[in-house]
Amino acid sequence: MSTVRQIYELLRWEVKLEWRDKYALGSVFLYVVATVVIVYLALGDAIAGQTFNALYWVVLFFGATVAAGRSFLREGGRRHLYYYTLADPLALLFSKLFYNVLVIWLISLLTFGLLSLFASAVVVTHPLPFLLAVVFGGFGLATILTFISALAARAGGNGTLMAILSFPLIVPLLKLMVDAGTYGIGEGINDPFQAVYLTLAVDLLAVAVAVVLFPFVWRD
């Protein structure tokens, strides 16, 4: 079976498993809704442009961490042996990655919709840089967190290890996303596409590192 076919079958299996066990995905969306509502109850109409931008990326980051951080936690024991003998490592990596990208993009849409509902005074005056930051930033978050999740899973599911490894890798990406979002709401930097280009560069670097190292991690 070709790698592309394996990716498709594993992705379909991932969606089927997630749909069967709606608790995990539902808990992520519940976190997003509860966080936005609590922020609104605390701040009310005081949610201005910069506050909106900061809250958006904070909620998206932690939602992405919860969603992508458990990617490989259920692949231990016999299931790991099953995948080990059946699938190509890169097919498994990209199936997890594509699934996490879709979930993170859904989280970003839900977060933006809820924040826009509660902070109707804030207007995204430059939607293209903001949208590109969400698309490329979400892909970067998914790539980094998926690979770190694999490392943590092979180390015995150590959540502390994942937090330690992911933090220095995520912070530069978040800085670029915040910069692009700041321009999107009509404030801050003069050249937002520089942040977008750098975000894309980080994405490509993260994918390259994951492609090179993941087969060794998974076969270990």
From TrEMBL:
The chain crosses the membrane at residues 23-43, 55-73, 97-124, 130-153, 160-178, 198-218. It is a multi-pass membrane protein. Keywords: Membrane, Transmembrane, Transmembrane helix. It comes from the Bacteria. GO terms for cellular component: membrane. This is Heme exporter protein B. GO terms for biological process: cytochrome complex assembly.
